[in-house]
Amino acid sequence: MAKKYIHTINIIIGVLAVGFSLFLTWAVSAFAPEENAGVIFIPILVTAVWFIGYMLQIKYNTLKNVLITLPVEAIVIYLIITQISSIIS
């Protein structure tokens, strides 16, 4: 798979994932009780997972690696957001 496609796919996923996590953090910080300090770590964790997945896809530039890494990356991001959100609620 060409690196151009890997970059395009990952930048789109990164913008969506980080944007959603920042929105979630803002919403919980603005409307939830004061004891939600853990919600600040959501964008940091989501960005770290996305960046690690992105670097793995660049380092191992194969279609098989991209097709394995993207769903794993999405599942880990989903688990981070849902688990932190459920702890806060």
Span between termini: 42 Å
Overall structural class, as computed from helix and strand content, comes to: mainly alpha
Tally of structural domains: 1
Tell me what portion of residues adopts beta-strand conformation.
under 5%
Globular, elongated, flat, extended or rod-shaped: what is the shape? elongated
Summarize the amount of helix as a percent range. over 70%
Query: In terms of per-residue confidence, which ranges show pLDDT below 50 for 5 or more consecutive residues?
Result: none
Characterization of the model:
By secondary structure, the chain is an all-alpha fold. It has one domain. It contains three helices and no strands. Keywords: Membrane, Plasmid, Transmembrane, Transmembrane helix.
Set down the secondary structure blueprint.
Layout: H1 3-31, H2 41-59, H3 63-88
Helix pairs in contact: 1-2, 2-3
Key structural traits:
mainly alpha, 89 residues, single chain, 3 helices, elongated
Short note summarizing the structure:
The chain is mainly alpha-helical.
